[in-house]
Each structure stands twice: as structure tokens, then as C-alpha cells.
Amino acid sequence: MPDTAPTQATGHVVAVRGGIVDAVFAGHGPEIDDLLYAGDVALQVMTFVEGGAARCIALGGVQGLGLGTPVRASGGPVRVPVGEAVLGRMLDVFGAPIDGLPAPESDARRSIHRAPPPLAARVSRAEVLETGIKAIDLLAPIERGGKTGLFGGAGVGKTVLLSELIHNTVEHHRGVSLFCGIGERSREAEELWREMGDAGVRDKMVMLFGQMNAAPGVRFLVGKAALTMAEWFRDDRSQDVLLLIDNIFRYVQAGSEVSGLMGRMPSRVGYQPTLATELATLQERIASTREGAITSIQAVYVPADDFTDPAAAHIFSHLSASVVLSRKRASEGLYPAVDPLGSTSVMLTPNVVGQRHYDIARAVRRTLAEYEDLRDIIAMLGIEELSAHDRAIVARARRLERFLTQPFTTVAGSTGEGGKLVTLAETLDGCETILNQTEFDRPESDYYMIGSLVDLEGAA
Ligand SMILES: Nc1ncnc2c1ncn2[C@@H]1O[C@H](COP(=O)(O)OP(=O)(O)OP(=O)(O)O)[C@@H](O)[C@H]1O
């Protein structure tokens, strides 16, 4: 149970519809965003309806609530504990423990509804965060202090890629890391918690969860609770924060469920009319200031693989790098299934990554795009009908495709292969070598699931 501020106004329930509860108060009632309690059930005031009733979303199951159940106002919004005390802990939307340990001993609690830093206070550093994952470092470098999205439909490897990124970056990250699970499976949450313990990085990490089985109100607010804790490390401790979110689409979806329950008319493709503002309220808080940077990596579920979906499109517009995962690649076993032509980053300019990296990335893309164009001809006429020049493009492209696959530590248990980290320099050297070759002694399959090209020599 979250703790409560001194009890103020009292009222009673006048309607319960799904996760929505209406309550009336005699005299001065609560305000928007205030936390109320109807019995044990926490509610947040969303709006006021005709007759003056406060319309609230439930932050838990509403079983047991009925007309006339007494409601008391907590005297303020949902507040979460902030500070060092939350490190190493697994918490819920109220900052209450779900790891079986006592509540974090923190003197300070902050409202989860906070304004983003003013524009003048924001900075960008044009610095790249190296991940050790070839396809990402080469084609969609992650901005330190920026926002990166991992886009993909169901089951193409978003969670695996995010876990691998956590594995590769959290250990070397200078500041603290915060993982926020929104609307995903609880089993994955439990696995991640255990993995972080095994990797010995739990003590500089906080994990917050509002998983699929949680009420829509909880899934809608857990991201804000996580941001509030992250902001403390950035603003009060001037630390860099790595914020990992799985899955930001579920935040939009929870907003849509809340909107539906509130009786608002849906907008495009059934989404809430407030989608853009709701998303901006959260994304704008993920900002880097002179105090410290918040680098965020967000998994984005793309419904029905449709990248024009309004939620996916709006999320895309907030990001500085987008890693797009393709179903076609996943079906060919080319993991991580990064789409080399669809993935982008604002970091990929000569000014930031340097001319050589930029040129190699462009050449890789061009080769793969030319191969795409040739695929139809190959399918109809066979590869023999191609000119020697085109055959060389195909040979290079197919080796590049395979070279950009990589064994991951996260799935080592099921693939039987240990994960491999590859430095950016090795990735660039490898791609350059392949791009400069016209004849290859080795079959394509030798390039599959290796680390750097040095592994190839080792296999000779
Ligand atoms: N890098 C990888 N190497 C090997 N297998 C992988 C890799 N990435 C994903 N897979 C396979 O694909 C499966 C689905 O991956 P994952 O759970 O990450 O997908 P997802 O996009 O998060 O799915 P959902 O939308 O259902 O949450 C994994 O269980 C694994 O079998």
C-alpha cells in the first residue's frame, strides 16, 4: 500500500464503470491529478463531470467498490520516493516494493506529474553511445543523452535487443540506470531482474513495473513515476541516467484505454484524441540538461507491422535514432533483425561520426539497396543471368547481411552460442574489407553469427 498524506476531504462513490470511478465530495473537494482512496483502492482524479463529481481512474482492481463506498482525498497527487534509496530495488507505480523487501527508506517523495525542463536548460552533446552491436553502431548510432526507439511488430526481437543493450551498456554506464516495464509480460520482468542480479549491476539500477496484468491507470502512470526518479538523479545529483522503456507503445495504449473508459470519442484508428499531447508530456521530460543527461532506449511495438500507425508515427517523431526490426530478416534468421535501410540516426553525419564511418555506412546501405533491386531478377532468371558487376554486388551484399548478424548473450541459453561484443572500429574494418572485395574465397555462411572478421581467420 502506498503511504498517504494527512486525510483531507471525504466523499463517496456514486458510480463505478470498469476502471473508472465517480466520487462526490461535500464542500471543497480534490483537484485534477489528486490521489484518492476508496477503501483500499487508489484512484487518480482525471476530470470533473456535470454535478461536480470527480471522475477518476482506478490504480488497481475495483472489486469490492460499490455505490456509497467512502472516499478520502490524500491531499495531493501520486508521489514516489526519490533518492539513493530506490537503487537496487524493484518497485511499482507508487514506488512500493515488489521485490519482497521493505519499502525504500527515503525522506523525499515527489509528485509524478512534473513539467519538462525549459528549452533554455536543455543541451545536446552530439556524442555517440557505443553498444558493441554491429548493426546499430554502424547504421543507427545511439545518441548519448538522446532518445532511441527499437521498432518492430510482434515477436521480431525487441525485448531481446533491449536486454542485450542493457547487458552491454549498464555495466559501463557512468551513472545510474532505470528500467521501466510498461504493459509487457511479468515473466520477462522477472527474468530481467534475475539477470541484473547475476550481472552484479542491480545496485546502480532501479526497476519499475506496471505490467500487462496491471490496471490501465497503472500502465498509464508508471512511466511518469520512473521519470520522476530519473529526474532526481539528473537534477539533484547531476548524474547521467540510462532510461530503458519496454514498451512505450503500451503507454499510448493505456492512455487509449483510459480515454475510452472516460467516454471520450476516439480519433484516428481508434486512438485517443489526446495521443500527441499525452506522448509529449512524457517524452519531453526525457531531456538532457547541463546537470546531467538522460539517454533513453525505448522498445516500440508496431501493431500489425504497420509503421504508419498513428502511435508508431508519433513516437518516431520524438526520437533521435530509430532502429527498425524487420519481420523478413527475423524469418531468415538474420538476428538482430535490424532493417539496414529503414533504421536511421541523427548522429550519422560526417560531423559526428567522422567521414570514414559515414562513407562506410552509406556504401553498406547502397550495396544492400542494389541487392534488393536485383532480387526480383534473380528470382525470375537466376543469378547466372546477372552481369559480373551485379554478381559481385550480390556476393558483397549477402556477406554484409550475414556479417551484420551477431550472437547475443541474452539468448545464449537457447542458441548455445556465447554473445559477442564488437567494437565500432572492428565493425568498420569488417564492412570495409567486404565492400572492397570482388571475389570471395569463403562461403557466405562463414560470415553468419560471427563477431569481427578476425573470428573468420580463427575459423580457417
Ligand atoms: N538476437 C536474437 N538472436 C536469436 N534469436 C532471437 C534474437 N532476437 C529474437 N530472437 C527470437 O525471437 C523471439 C522473440 O523475440 P522478442 O521476445 O524479443 O520479440 P518482441 O519483439 O519483444 O516480441 P513481443 O512483441 O511479442 O514482445 C525470441 O524468443 C527468440 O527466439
Can you describe what's shown?
This protein has helices at 134-139, 158-169, 186-198, 216-237, 248-261, 275-283, 310-316, 327-331, 350-353, 355-381, 388-403, 412-415, 424-435, 454-458, and strands at 10-17, 20-25, 34-38, 41-48, 54-58, 70-77, 79-81, 89-91, 109-111, 128-129, 142-143, 147-152, 176-182, 205-210, 241-246, 294-301, 321-324, 344-345. It is of the alpha/beta class. The chain has 3 domains: 10-77, Thrombin, subunit H (Beta Barrel), CATH 2.40.10.170; 80-345, P-loop containing nucleotide triphosphate hydrolases (Rossmann fold), CATH 3.40.50.300; 355-458, Orthogonal Bundle (Bovine Mitochondrial F1-ATPase, ATP Synthase Beta Chain, Chain D, domain3). The protein has an 8-stranded mixed beta sheet with strand order 8-14-13-15-16-12-17-18, sandwiched between helices. A 6-stranded antiparallel barrel has the order 1-2-5-4-3-6. A two-stranded antiparallel ribbon has the order 7-9. Strand 4 (41-48) and strand 5 form a beta hairpin. Helix 10 (355-381) packs across helix 11 and helix 10 packs across helix 13. Mean pLDDT is 91; it is low at 3-7. Bound molecules: adenosine-5'-triphosphate. Adenosine-5'-triphosphate binds at residues 152, 154-160, 301, 335-336, 408, 411, 415. Adenosine-5'-triphosphate is lined by residues 152, 154-160, 301, 335-336, 408, 411, 415. Its EC number is 7.1.2.2.
Number of helices: 14
The overall strand count is: 18
The named CATH superfamily of the largest domain: P-loop containing nucleotide triphosphate hydrolases
Note the quaternary state here. single chain
Uncertain residue ranges: 3-7
